[in-house]
């Protein structure tokens, strides 16, 4: 009976070691050597069990102890496990930490596919003349590499609209190196996501309601907004912060970015591609997450966007000071998901920008842009024992990208929009989501076109 | 030019909060001493589960949580002859890279505390200590899930889930191993 128990123990240990060590690639020789050693140990222990006396059992206990420690070390990592000399120990301070550097590649990703069906008629009853579209909207791969405990690299490579032979593109969405100075503070440099709003930094499909992103976080906070720069990040006592210096926006399209338009600031993004660096900007964000499920925060961006572009008469350069502020809040717990955001932006020297860009009449870039939205959803399967989530949601949004224009220009009613979105999301598992919603889109020019959206997204 | 300087000054003059968390690294011994401070003693034990016992733990943990180990090492904290709790160490994958947790279980089979020993993913995905605090006092019920009482961490959903699964796995193993009656 006793030998049967010991045999089971030994076999369990060997089985566990086999499971633990088998997946390791590039270490076949080491694994084989370890297995040969373990086989020899099993053979020896089995022989001893036949005539086991108390001394032999004690010895076998020690050997099994050693093997279980090896299992533990393989599972947890050598840098975590500090060996003790005895089974019962006082655990004084470790004589030395074993900081054997764990290097590693981290891969993740997300993607989304979107069908958009447009209403045949506009808000004023005229034909919309819009075609329905189905799009492989995004395919993204995250690749990170941890050099050691202080330095790591993280990146996102995105294919938009499936193919560069049509309207698609391949972009480096972010690529930065983190330097973890110490517990209080980290430094970050590279192509950075500007830390504003909800979606610019966090836009995997399961992390937001709606098949499409809110317009406020496209036109005023022009997600996905990334610029080259450097800064610091960290957090404590329920607060998190990021503060960066980045190259400024490009208001007039000097870099080929397109520049600001009546529709918003989106065309001013330089995306890290040979970005003009005559003007820099500062951006900072603070979030409070001290209450479980609650996130309340604000962010502020300030910087010139002229990039030394000349006025139309070539007599001076354009500064185009641009400021963007947002306040945001979210509560998410027990199936309930509430979110709201307000964003305000001001742009100076709009007349000069308009003249360079050739904008007249109601085509002016907005001197002031305002947008906000509130949305809410509830997982109706929250109380049911299933991994599935079914989340009806509704969002109401108002945005006006020409809230104020300079004298001599007029506001376009099309820039003053209200969007009501209602639909539902189904998550069979937390990493997969299917959303379907209907959007009632109205504007002050009566040219809004309602649309029906269906999307499928994934992340890993 | 003034505006340019203003922008740079703004960024450089942002008042930074005083502390934050980079990747948390505790050794196993440091974590155990956090769980069971002096003068408590700590006893290392290993359970060897039969396949049926492993399957039972797998069932208890729930449909989304995998229990695949049959060799489970745990640490019992004792003050004299009184058990203080049992510490388990759970290694699992977050996105691609591993995380190691210490999960301490009270004598009445509730979670006492969770400590992160190793976190290899970028720090953006690391959950704060305040978030881990919501596990204290939880037992193995339906509430111990991100669909139940556990609140997801915005921006770190994969980590939130991995920690919750680890908590369920450890409590399930604890129920099967029943380490404390043997001590007593």
What does this structure look like?
The complex is a heterodimer of chains A (460) and B (184). Chain A has 460 residues and is α+β, with helices and mostly antiparallel strands. Chain A contains 5 helices and 17 strands. Chain A has helices at residues 2-21, 28-50, 54-76, 216-219, 350-357; strands spanning 88-89, 104-118, 133-146, 151-160, 169-180, 186-193, 226-236, 239-247, 280-288, 294-304, 321-333, 336-347, 368-378, 389-404, 416-427, 432-443, 451-459. Chain A is globular and about 105 Å long. Residues 18-28 and 83-101 of chain A have low confidence and may be disordered. Chain B is α+β, with helices and mostly antiparallel strands. Helices cover 33% and strands 25% of the residues of chain B. A 5-stranded antiparallel β-sheet of chain B has the order 1-2-3-4-5, sandwiched between helices. The longest helix of chain B is centred in the C-terminal third of the chain and has 21 residues, at 157-177. Classes of the chains: A alpha+beta (460), B alpha+beta (184). At the A-B interface, α1, α3, β1, β2 and β3 of A face α1, α2 and β1 of B. β1 (88-89) of chain A pairs antiparallel with β1 (41-48) of chain B.
Please work out how many helical segments of chain A DSSP would assign.
5
Shape of chain B: globular
Q: What's the overall geometry of chain A?
A: globular
Spatial arrangement of strands, main beta sheet of chain A: 2-3-4-5-6-7-8-9-10-11-12-13-14-15-16-17
Mean pLDDT of chain B, to the nearest integer, reads 83
Give the averaged pLDDT of chain A, no decimals.
85
Strand content of chain B: 25-35%
Number of separate strands of chain B:
5
Beta-strand level of the residues of chain A, as a percent range? 35-45%
Largest sheet of chain A: 16 strands, antiparallel, barrel
The secondary-structure class of chain B comes to alpha+beta
Order of helices and strands of chain B: HHEHEEEEHHH
Number of strands of chain A: 17
């Amino acid at each position: 009976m006793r030998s049967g128990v010991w045999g089971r123990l030994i076999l369990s240990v060997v089985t566990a070691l086999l499971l633990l060590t088998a997946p390791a690639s590039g270490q076949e020789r080491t694994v084989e050597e370890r297995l040969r050693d373990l086989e020899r140990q099993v053979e020896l222990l089995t022989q001893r069990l036949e005539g086991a006396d108390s001394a032999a059992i004690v010895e076998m206990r020690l050997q099994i102890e050693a093997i279980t420690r090896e299992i533990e070390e393989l599972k947890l990592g050598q840098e975590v496990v500090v060996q003790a000399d005895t089974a019962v120990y006082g655990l004084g301070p470790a004589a030395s930490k074993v900081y054997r550097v764990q290097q590693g590649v981290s891969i993740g990703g997300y993607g989304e596919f979107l069908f958009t069906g447009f209403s045949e008629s506009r808000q004023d009853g005229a034909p919309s003349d819009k075609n329905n579209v189905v799009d492989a909207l995004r395919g993204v791969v995250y690749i990170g590499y941890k050099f050691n405990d202080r330095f790591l690299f993280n990146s996102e490579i995105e294919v938009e609209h499936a193919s560069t032979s049509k309207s698609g593109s391949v972009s480096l969405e972010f690529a930065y190196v983190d330097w973890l100075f110490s517990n209080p503070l980290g430094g970050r440099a590279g192509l950075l996501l500007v830390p504003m709003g909800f979606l610019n930094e966090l836009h995997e499909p399961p992390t937001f309601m709606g098949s499409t992103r809110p317009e406020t976080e496209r036109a005023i906070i022009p997600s996905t907004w990334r610029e080259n720069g450097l800064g610091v990040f960290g957090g404590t006592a329920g607060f998190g912060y990021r503060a960066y210096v980045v190259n400024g926006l490009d208001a007039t399209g000097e870099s080929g970015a397109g520049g600001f338009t009546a529709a918003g600031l989106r065309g001013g993004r330089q995306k890290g591609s040979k970005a003009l660096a005559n003007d820099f900007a500062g951006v900072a964000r603070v979030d409070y997450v001290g209450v479980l499920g609650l996130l309340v925060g604000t962010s502020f961006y300030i910087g010139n966007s002229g990039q030394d572009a000349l006025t139309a008469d070539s007599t001076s350069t354009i500064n185009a000071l641009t400021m963007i502020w947002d306040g945001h809040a979210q509560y998410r717990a027990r199936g309930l998901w509430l979110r709201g955001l307000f964003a305000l932006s001001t742009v100076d020297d709009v007349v000069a920008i308009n003249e360079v860009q050739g904008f007249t009449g109601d085509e002016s870039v907005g001197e002031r842009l305002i947008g906000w939205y509130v949305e809410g959803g509830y997982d109706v399967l929250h109380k049911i024992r299933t991994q599935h989530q079914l989340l009806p949601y509704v969002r109401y949004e108002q945005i006006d990208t020409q809230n104020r224009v300079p004298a001599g220009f007029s506001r376009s009613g099309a820039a003053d929009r209200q969007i009501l979105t209602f639909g539902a999301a189904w998550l069979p598992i937390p990493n997969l989501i299917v959303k379907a919603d209907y959007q009632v889109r109205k504007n002050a020019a009566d040219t809004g076109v309602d649309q029906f959206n269906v999307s499928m997204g994934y992340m890993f | 030019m003034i505006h340019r300087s203003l922008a740079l000054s703004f960024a450089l003059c942002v008042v930074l909060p005083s502390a934050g968390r980079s990747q948390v690294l505790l050794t196993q011994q440091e974590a155990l001493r956090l769980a069971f401070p002096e003068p408590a003693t700590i006893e290392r034990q290993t359970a060897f589960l039969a396949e049926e016992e492993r399957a039972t733990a797998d069932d208890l943990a729930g449909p989304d949580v995998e229990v695949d180990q049959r060799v489970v090492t745990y640490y019992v904290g004792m003050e004299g002859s009184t058990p203080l709790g049992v510490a388990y160490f759970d290694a699992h994958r977050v996105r691609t890279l591993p995380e190691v947790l210490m999960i301490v279980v009270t004598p009445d089979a509730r979670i006492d505390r969770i400590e992160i020993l190793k976190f290899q993913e970028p720090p953006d995905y690391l959950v704060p200590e305040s978030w881990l605090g919501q596990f204290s006092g939880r037992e193995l019920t339906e509430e111990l899930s991100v669909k139940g009482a556990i609140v997801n961490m915005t921006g770190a959903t994969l980590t939130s889930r991995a920690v919750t699964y680890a908590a369920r796995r450890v409590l399930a193993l604890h129920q099967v191993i029943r380490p404390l009656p043997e001590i007593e």
